[in-house]
Amino acid sequence: MKPVYGKQLPNRTSASASTGALILVTIGSILLAPSNLRAGDWDFSASISGELRVFPNAPAFAEQDDATLSPSFAVEPEVVYEWNEGDDRLTFVPFARWDAHDDNRSHVDLRELNWLHVGEDWDSVVGVEKVFWGVTESRHLVDIINQDDAVEDVDGEDKLGQPMLNVNLFRDWGTLSGFVLPGFRERPFHSNDARLRGAIPVDEDAASYESGAEEYHVDFAARWAQTFDILDVGIAHFHGTSREPRMLMRTDSDGRMVMVPHYDQIDQTSLDAQLTQDAWLLKLEAITRSGQGDRFFATVAGFEYTLFGLFESNADLGLLAEYLYDGRDEDDAPAVITDDDIFLGARATLNDEDDTTFLIGAIVDRKDQATSVSIEAERRIGEFWKVELEGRLFINTNEDDPILHGIRDDDVLTLRVTRYF
Question: What does R_g of the chain's alpha carbons equal in angstroms?
Fold first, then answer.
């Protein structure tokens, strides 16, 4: 399988060598420790998924594979070892996928490999971990620690593991989190002959960096979070290599036009807030960023209103609406499709014993009405199985929007069946 890293695997591995060495030392010290320390608890779980993607339309570009049905399989085991009465924990979560038609989607990643230590009013994490920030539905502006695993899905929900040292302090005035992030992870892209690749192929092996340290640059982040009665607030700052690459137009050795990722050094300050009042959730994410042209501001703001016990049943229906704004200059910053858009959606939760849920949403551009539709449904089957159905539709795309228009014929319906162990 081809690794998700953009260049050769040895380069990516050595970028996080210090973190890996610390993890190995930690594991070794446990194995060599006295028996009373090693007398901890082991826990093993795993999931195996079979996935079938259906592309109803012929591809827009001749180089793309024209298969209508595209199967894949994924496995994600999890090994957890706890000792010291649960105050210390090692977690190991690898991930692997094989895809029939996208070589880059056939990949292996280390989602987690870390040591958690819990103190009296603090904790620390050393190793590879995933961290999520954010409250909004349509776009996670403030979520910047981990790189997108962009070959998994187009929604930005799947993330690569990030090497880190994380320390969290828990105080009456809030939770203060600090992050040291050694070893940058490049964003993976679909193969040049795959669906959802876009109009112009990406030469990820030619990726460039603003920092002379390239993928070895050490990034830093800090976040303060607090709850005030019905209001949850988080304020964060990130300094380091942008997880969003700028795509530079270049000509490759064969004379073809390709896009080359370029990773800038940025400073980003963010605010996320959620106010809960009865059936209302009011949500806000906002950032200001420098380092990619002029400093710019971006925000997602909206609400979710829940109708409980719909039609005197156990089902709840959540109505969602958000406004998305992004003021970046796309000549100097990574292109986005959500610069002046409206998101409308609905979430149905049946509250049955099989945890059945449905979610449908659409992001509509206010200027040209280009629309991206997302449909998701899931349901457990018995104790160990889950079935999911997802749809991604791209409607009324405009040639002036290179991102959406490049995948205009790549509507996809995905059926996924997962077995948990």
Answer: 22
pLDDT in tens, 215-237: 999 999 999 999 999 999 999 99
Go through 113-126 and write b for each residue having 16 or more CB atoms within 10 A of its CB, e for each that does not.
Answer: bbbbeeeeeebebb
Residue 1 domain-assigned (yes or no): no
Q: Is residue 120 part of a domain?
A: yes
Written as one letter, the residue type at 229 is: D
Residue 201 forms part of a structural domain: yes
Instruction: State the Cα–Cα distance between residues 182 and 14, nearest whole angstrom.
Output: 11
Q: For residue 52, what is the domain's CATH number?
A: 2.40.160.10
pLDDT band at residue 314 under the 50/70/90 scheme: very high
Residue (of 190, 199, 206, 197) closest to 260 by Cα position: 206
- Whether the pLDDT of residue 247 is over 70: the answer is yes
**139 phi, psi to nearest 5 deg:** -155, 135
Work out how many domains the chain is built from and give that number. 1
pTM listed for this prediction: 0.89
HEC states along the chain? Answer: CCCCCCCCHHHHHHHCHHHHHHHHHHHHHHHHCCHHHHCCEEEEEEEEEEEEEECCCCCCCCCCCCCCEEEEEEEEEEEEEEECCCCEEEEEEEEEEEECCCCCCCEEEEEEEEEEEECCCEEEEEEEECCCCCCCCCCCCCCCCCCECCCCCCCCCCECCEEEEEEEEEECCEEEEEEEECCCCCCCCCCCCCCCCCCCCECHHHCEECCCCHHHCCEEEEEEEEEECCEEEEEEEEEEECCCCEEEEEECCCCCEEEEEEECEEEEEEEEEEEEECCEEEEEEEEEEECCCCCEEEEEEEEEEEECCHHHCCCEEEEEEEEEEECCCCCCCCCCCCCEEEEEEEEEECCCCCCCEEEEEEEEECCCCCEEEEEEEEEEECCCEEEEEEEEEEECCCCCCHHHHHCCCCCEEEEEEEEEC
Residue 79 is assigned to a structural domain of this protein: yes
Could you tell me the residue range of the domain that residue 13 belongs to? 9-420
On average, the pLDDT of the chain sits at 91
